[in-house]
Amino acid sequence: MKDFYFENKDIRVEHKYDFPMSRELCFLHTHLNAELYYFLSGDIKIHIDDSIYVASKGDVFLIRPNEPHYFEVDPNFPYERIVINFDPETFAKFDGKDYIKSCFYNRKSGQKNQYCASCFKDKAYSKYFMDMVTPSKSNEVNIYSNLFMILSEIADIFNSDIVLEVPFTDSLDSQIIRYVNDNLEKPLNLNMLCERFYISRSKLNQIFNRNTGISTWDYILNKRLNKAKALLVAGYPSTRVAELCGFSNYSTFYRAYIKLFGVSPSYRST
């Protein structure tokens, strides 16, 4: 099966098929743009913030800008997917009363990300995805028109009475991760978390490695820095951002930011 790839300044579209493959575990990350993920085959769990979703064939996942996520893939199964990264403002002038944007922003992080095949009124949504990755003389027009149709259907589902899939969020793992997410601006360390949740340091690190692919402290640092990136893009001064993201001194924040993103906090990425 031949992969498909298209990219311009506003959008990137990929159709990928892997088998056999080495074990894939993408560490927790975020994007400045939104991500639309269409699952075609494989065995995967999708971690979005402190939620875990199990994907079935035909499921669609919507991930907003700066929503932390990663994909846990079993390498023993053929893995096929279509991934689209784009700016949610792409269709702003056609989006009356922010109808489409509502499914990105009118929800908590890690919630209402999964749209099962049964949520859609018919199989037309699947055709929209496949048409996007079918080469044509007018790739750009084809991609934008089909993406708009997909997002319109997703917005219809989001704003209807259809009950979306509920991720796994009630475990001790999720309670700990949610606590960290809700307290990034406060002092956080391993001993404090262990005392609060009555677990050992090794158990704590096992929880974070199992759910995020990285250690407890790396997760805290990653979340703080991605929050900082979003605040900087929103126009907050870098010294204030450091405070809001739980860094006790600016030099520590400055060094960590450059190490992760390759640019200084004064650089305004869009």
CA(first)-CA(last) distance: 34 Å
CATH level-four homologous superfamily name of the largest domain: Jelly Rolls
Q: Say what oligomer this is.
A: single chain
How does the major sheet shape up?
Answer: 6 strands, antiparallel
Mean pLDDT across all amino acids: 87
User: How do the helices and strands follow one another from N- to C-terminus?
Assistant: EEEEEEEEEHEHHHHHHHH
Structural class: alpha+beta
Provide structural commentary.
The protein has helices spanning 102-105, 124-132, 139-158, 172-182, 190-197, 201-212, 216-233, 238-244, 250-261; strands at 4-7, 11-18, 24-25, 34-41, 44-48, 51-54, 60-63, 69-73, 79-86, 114-115. It has 270 residues and is an alpha+beta fold. It has 2 domains: 4-158, Jelly Rolls (Sandwich), CATH 2.60.120.10; 172-261, Arc Repressor Mutant, subunit A (Orthogonal Bundle), CATH 1.10.10.60. Strands 1-2-9-4-7-10 form a 6-stranded antiparallel sheet, covered by helices on one side. The chain has a 4-stranded antiparallel sheet with strand order 3-8-5-6, with no helix packed on it. Strand 5 and strand 6 form a beta hairpin. Helix 2 (124-132) runs antiparallel to helix 3 (139-158).
